[in-house]
Prior knowledge:
single chain; alpha/beta; Rossmann fold; Arc Repressor Mutant, subunit A; five-stranded parallel sheet; 17 helices; 14 strands; globular
Amino acid sequence: MMLTRRLEHLLQQRLRQAPAVVLLGPRQVGKTSLAREVAARHPGALVLDLERASDRAALERPELFFAAHRDRLLVLDEVQHLPRLFEALRPEIDADRRPGRFLLLGSASGDLLRQSGESLAGRVSYLELTPFLAAELMPDLAGLQSLWLRGGFPLSWLAPDDEASFSWRQDFIRTFLQRDLPGLGLRIPAETLRRFWQMLAHLQGQMFNASQLGQSLGGASHSTATRYLDVLADTLMVRRLPPHLPNLGKRLVKSPKVYLRDSGLLHALLGLATVRELQGHPVAGASWEGFVVEQVAAQLPADAQLSFYRTAVGAEIDLIVEHRGRTLAVEIKFSSAPKPARGFWQALQDLGIERAFVVAPVTHRYPLAEGVEVLPLQELGTLCA
């Protein structure tokens, strides 16, 4: 099954503008496949996989290798395995700043971003490849249910049945904890981090309380719980959604909400293998909410800001989208006939928002009230249009 990734056009555009582009994303999300498709459009492009000893050996003297291939696009996959490359890339890019010279692929981590940011400031453009989006697959409602259940990792979504998909995700979680994180230099016991990850799964979409989670981990400190969250956020497994804090003189919730970013991994951590099991589970509404949050976030312009709004007396909006002077509200409902609660309407009034959307599993968009539309997931690309 061949799919055109939404990011492909933007990646091509960035390669025409910047000398180096860093494509970030979790393992198995499709970075290598996308990079090879892009490289095929660049005659003479050279792809090196830095997990292979022979390809790492070719870069033993990176300054010589780069200088010898200045006329080609160099694709360097799994670049986090050779962090010293960033120091060699800086003088090479300064010597020849033509756009489209380097495409660097990396499994996201705080260290990778820091090293590349320090060494290549002003020389590199960053893009994040997410798991498959509804806007890429354009599924019908049955297909949308399957995408929600399985998540968007290609091998999970394309598995022959739900059981095979569930098994793939269980293996992914195990490999991520036991091999990928240690490969990034993170020394946290795999079983400890798995327990923490499962705790977050049960708390999908709720406020992050570091002290409470630390106690549940056997008396760990709040700083330890925060460090574990940092690890999962840096590796793009978890999203911290910040609160929207306008100066309204109201008592506002100020803790971030936390979501597992891929719904399929959320369900695997909770042992939910079928749509029937998912729909009967208390996490179903929060799971759908997190699923939609990721669909929205992936389609926003890079300079858009995402947050949530909640007051102590119950006024609430799931997502606030701010972009170039415009503020939109997005409410998320797991219903084919969505009816926002009174707190949503109060929050619109609090913030003076004139345009809002209610995203729900519906087949077509329709007006709900003045300035408020119900929107199917597949039309999220129109949010900032």
